[in-house]
Automatic annotation (TrEMBL):
It holds the Pfam family HTH_1. GO terms for cellular component: protein-DNA complex. Coiled coil: none annotated. Keywords: DNA-binding, Transcription, Transcription regulation. This is HTH lysR-type domain-containing protein. Belongs to the LysR transcriptional regulatory family. The lineage of its organism: Bacteria, Bacillati, Bacillota, Negativicutes, Selenomonadales. GO terms for molecular function: DNA binding; DNA-binding transcription factor activity. CDD domains: PBP2_LTTR_substrate. It comes from Selenomonas infelix ATCC 43532.
Amino acid sequence: MMETLLKYIQTIDMCGSFAEAAKILHVTPPALSIAVRKEEERIGMPLFDRTARPLRLTRAGVCYASHIEQLSRLEQSFADELQDVVDFRQGTLRVGGTQYVNSFLLPPVLGQFLVRYPEARVELTEGNSDRSIALLAEGQLDLTFGTEAARAEGINAVPAFHDQLLLAVPECFPVNRTLAGYALSHAAIAARAYGEGDSPAVPLRTFADTPMVFLSEKNNLYRRACRICADAGFVPQIRLQVDQFVTSYHIAQSGIGAVFVSDQLIAMSVPAPMVYYRIAHAQVRRTFYALSSRVRFVPQVVRTFLCFFQSMRED
C-alpha cells in the first residue's frame, strides 16, 4: 500500500496534474484523486497545492513523500527478510566486479560455492569499481569489491583478500640487461618465491626513461603508480592509458611499455614474454574489501558466500 501511494505522489509531482499522472499510472483521474484525498484526510493535511499550476507538493507533502519512501524501503526489507527465512541459502547472489576480480579471483570461489550450494543462483556484473559501488548503493548489487574501503554512507567494508604489485617489463627492453640480479620468473611468482628474503627489490629509478602503460586517472592504481614513481624520484613516461587492469597487462606484452601488475594476475595467466621485478614500497600491497549495504537487507545467500569466500582466501 505504501509503495503504491508513494508511486502515486511521485508521479503526480512529476507530471504536475492528476490527469497526466493517471495516464502514466493506468488509473482513472477520479480514482487517483480519491486515493490521494483519503490519505490527506487521514493525516489531516493537504499533500498538494491545488491552486498552483502545475500542481506542486505542499511542505507537508514533501515531508510525507520523504518519510513514506523510507517506510516503503523498510517494508520491502521486511518482506525480503521473511522470504529469506523461507529460502535460507536459496536465492540470487548479485555480485559486481572489475574484469580482474571477475576473471581471476572469483571463478575458483564461485565454482566451489555452487558445488556446495547448488540451489543458489549467481548474477555477475562487470564494470569499474565506481560503477559497481553506485549499483550497490542503488540496490542493484548485493556485493562488490574495491581496493579502497568505501567511505560512502551506508556501505559496509570488510577486508577480503590481498595482492602485491610487481613491475612487468617486456623482455625486449634493453634496460633488463643490467638488472638480471633483480629479475623474477613467472615460475617464481606462481610459487610465491619473491619475498624480501627471496629476491632484492629493483632500484625503480632505473626505469625513469622507460615507456609505461598506465590505467586512466580515475583508477586507484593510477594514483598508486604515480606515488610509487614519485617516491623513486621520477615522473613516469606514460605511453598509453587504458581503463582495465587486465587490458594494461596484455597490451604491455606487445612491447608497448612496462606496467604495474598484480602477482595474482601473473600467477594465474599463461607465461608471457615479460621480466618481473619486486618493488620496495608500502603502496604495492593492496587490500581488497568486500563491500555490501548497511541500509538494505543482506540475504543469507550473500552472507554465506562472503564467509565462504573469506575462508577459501585464508586457506
